[in-house]
Known about the structure:
The protein is 31% helix and 19% strand. By secondary structure, it is of the alpha/beta class.
Amino acid sequence: MRRSTGLIKGLLRITLDKESRPIGVQIDTTHRCNLNCIHCYFREQDHHNELTTNQWIEVIEELQDRFDFLHCAWVGGEPLLRPDLLDKGTRYFKLNWVVTNGTLGIPDLKGCNFFVSRDGTKRYHELIRGVGTYDRAVQNIVNSEARICLGMTVNSINYGCISDVLGEWRDTNVVGINFMFHSPLRKDLFINYGVGTRSLMY
């Protein structure tokens, strides 16, 4: 409750400031991943050498001195390949989102919400992310006491199983499902609705 109250006060303070400023930052914790998902945009990019944990902490402290961010989204790659960075770095923000594929477990990190990627029912999820990835992540999710939201990228492979996904996760410990539409990095996965990329929160 104290964390929520502090976050609300921080947002109000920013809203009332005469000069607007950013309230959140996103950190690409690593370019590495233990999976090779067919729809991933990150692996298509050129990547430089990664910063060490100490180098990252120096960057974070500099950012916080300048902006006093309330929120950080930890993405990748697979952020949980850098547990040392998450353990130290998340302490600098009142609210943290860790976006993960869920196959490496869900650690007990204070002040962290986890967004675990689910790309449909088991059949479709494993067509996209590989055999064995579904059951492993499900086990980690149901055994976790963390606050978990699921993320599903809807594409031409899995769009037909959205209702089944809702049914599968209805009576579980997840707090919500975020549906996003695939951006046309791979045109064969793109669903053209005549509008841009959209997202729905259920």
